[in-house]
Design brief:
257 residues; six-stranded parallel β-sheet
């Protein structure tokens, strides 16, 4: 059966009532995903296709516009051409092709990058190779690893390179602004570090200067919504609302949300 089917029974009708769009995340095993062998890739492919089959039967809804493949792709795990070909051929391409051939849904992936482990040119070239012959509709680039304040001066250069690779392949480029707070690391807004809202404002301001970026989205980490972080989350929502009111019209949610 579908994972968390009871939640889908609530979420999908609610999205229809409020005219929201949903991307369904296809469950992937979290163990050993970074150095995935062929057996792992085959298992994820089969499971995801079975999930899509079940979902299409049980939840036909115009609010569900796409499927999200949650495997977190990063260059330093897949930079060798043979490994990248294996990732695409064994796993990504069969799932993407199945979605396009059997549904009317879009396909979204959300890879990440680390600016300390590769140059901006290397990251751009990797994403160009990743997207080649892979009919992805949306690339929502995770910025979490890059969003440490010490890395943000290089942040835009890397993201612009990825956006160029996406544009070259006709892929819609979004920026996935990660709003987590690491309690141990000051560089992520932990003790004695940059305030969380200040860091996120810097991420959003940077996103709004990027060419070819049609949306920015955010992922709400569960740790932030825990009871002892309620004050942080409330402050964050207040800040986002205020920033939204300050944005010029060309950056409002029709393009960035």
């Amino acid at each position: 059966g579908l994972r968390d089917e009871q939640h889908l029974e609530i979420a999908v009708p609610a999205a229809e009532r409020h005219d929201l769009e949903i991307f369904i995340g296809l469950y992937a095993e979290n163990q050993d995903w970074w150095f995935a062998n062929d057996e792992y890739l085959d298992r994820q492919k089969v499971r995801m296709i079975q999930t899509i089959e079940l979902f299409e039967t049980k939840f036909p809804s115009s609010s569900v516009v796409g499927y999200y493949i949650p495997h977190e792709i990063a260059r330093y795990y897949w930079h060798k051409p043979a490994d990248l070909a294996r990732l695409k051929g064994k796993f990504l391409k069969p799932v993407v092709d199945y979605i396009h051939q059997n549904t009317n849904k879009k396909v979204l992936i959300s890879p990440f990058f680390n600016p300390d482990l590769a140059t901006a040119t290397e990251i751009e070239e990797f994403f160009y190779a990743l997207l080649d012959s892979l009919e992805i509709d949306i690339l929502a680039l995770q910025d979490g690893v890059a969003s440490m304040p010490s890395r943000i001066p290089r942040y835009g250069e890397y993201i612009r390179g990825v956006s160029r690779s996406a544009q070259a392949h006709g892929v819609d480029f979004w920026l996935n602004i990660e709003i987590f707070k690491d309690n141990e690391d000051p560089a992520y807004g932990g003790p004695s570090g940059m305030e969380l809202t200040d860091r996120i404002r810097l991420q959003i301001d940077t996103a709004n200067t990027l060419p070819h970026c049609s949306k920015w989205i955010s992922y709400d980490y569960s740790s932030i919504t825990a009871d002892h972080y309620a004050h942080t989350m409330n402050a964050l929502f207040d800040t986002l609302t205020r920033w939204h009111e300050e944005l010029p019209s060309h950056l409002l949610p029709s393009q960035n949300s």
